[in-house]
Fold this protein.
Amino acid sequence: MSVAPPHTLETTIGLEIHVELATASKMFCGCKVAFGGEPNTRTCPVCLGLPGSLPVVNERAIEYTTRIGVAFNCSIAKRSLFARKNYFYPDMPKNYQITQYELPLATQGHLTLDGESGAVSVGVTRVHLEEDTGGSLHVGGSGRIADSEYSLEDYNRAGTPLVEIVTEPDLHTAEQARLFVAELRAIVEALGVSDVRMEEGSLRVDANISVRRAGEVEHGAKVEVKNMNSIRSVGRALEHEEERQRKALEAGETLVQETRHFDEKTGTTSSLRTKEYAFDYRYFPEPDLVPFEAADEWVEALRASQPELPAERRVRWKQTYGLPPGDVAVLASSKATAAWFEAAALAYGGDAKKIVNWIIADLFGLLNEAGIDLTECKIAPAQLAGLVGLVDDGAISGKQAKEVLGHMFKTGDDAAEVVQDKGLEQESDTAVLDAVVEEVIAENPEAADKVRAGQLNTIGFLVGRVMRKTGGSANPKLVTELLRTKLAG
Amino acid sequence: MGIDRAAVDHVARLARLALDDDERDRMRAELDDILGHAGRIQALDLDGVEPTLHPLPLVNASRPDEITPSLSQSDALRSAPEAEDGRFRVPRIIEDA
Ligand SMILES: [Zn+2]
């Protein structure tokens, strides 16, 4: 086999993403949807698959899925249908999963990503609705299925509405895949239809990745990568897997179709070594559920009531606040951050860029240190606006403001209160400052002469002396002005 | 048309049924009859005829998203052959299609 130089290899990635919907009740029964809890305390005859029980569709799950389809520019099926996917695995007590097969709720969508290398349009093959499985604990051996002695099943999650979103193989780098997942997460969050927490499994990503020599018609051996538990992991796992496949091809090796597991710690993927079967799920229309027909008016009403999506928000922010794309990307990445920024910018009313800088440079640092996110922050958006206002008015210096922010972060007090409590207010009384400035000039005659002779950079030294004498409370702008006037040649 | 022993074995495996030789012969004949019947329908010209997915002319049967009481853990596990720590205990999972 000839060895291909690296530049002739190309990568193809497609994603399959599962999103648990944040409905109150399960997909086909009234059991509560929640995370965790005592095992098997949220089950009933329907989600346990007991004989004689019948599923009834949760209408909100249909609405939420349709909203996702609309957000991904899909065509919404006039008629859709549930199907049975038959397989034997104890995480599904019925021995089948109710899903959608031939007639999913939404198909043929697309999403445009603004990547570093320009815009990429990613096809969305389908968006369908199904039910989630329960959770298994494998007991004995290493805790993996293969060498366990038995398994324990908890069906609290079984029957939770789950949306599957499948993309076309239109992604060509790990970074694009990571961006797609980040954008999807932001969209679904903006829609308010899921809490999209990857660490809790309400957003799950599997990827198919193959590398082939450029110009070849056939795709390379498709490798499915699983267990990517954060958006960052998606990037890391696919970068690693792409590199592994490239190296193998460059070394003249043949790649095999397989499923590989990403290890968060090592940053590598390893073969799951399961036997590869052509699964025969024997899909057939679910006899216990009737078709769903989406009336045009209903779809249009949903379309009209969609909340603002991240892409629209980014455009608006650029226009309204004139923010650079980098800042916009950071602030628009989560619904909570976006709402927080908007509230602060509105309360402030001035140059929104200042608010952005305080959030990104200072507030995020404090949040990171405390290990909490913005929703748990004691500082309200209007309080940050208040702090920036005090700096604008010259009541406190920028440096003092950072200290004030630290206190506000701990107590949730207003900036003005903290300033008063800590006696931080800048001395802006000209009469008081005048005396100190005179003293400093008298004590530093050489420096004063330099300034008089036109060496204006020496003013900084004198300002520093004044600040020291006042314990940092003098308004430096005012001090500089006073010095300039007094030492004017 | 016609179903052979290998097809019977495949279907039996998918359905997790252990059939003995007599049962396999009987199933082969019965499945053959069923497929023969389906074959007569397939011979008809059905272009443009919508598949009947449901005998009832019903669509959009749904319920509002409301929580109803669940079973208690002990009730949920009542008919479980084995339970442990509030969970259903099942035999070792052997991955097979
Ligand atoms: Zn239930």
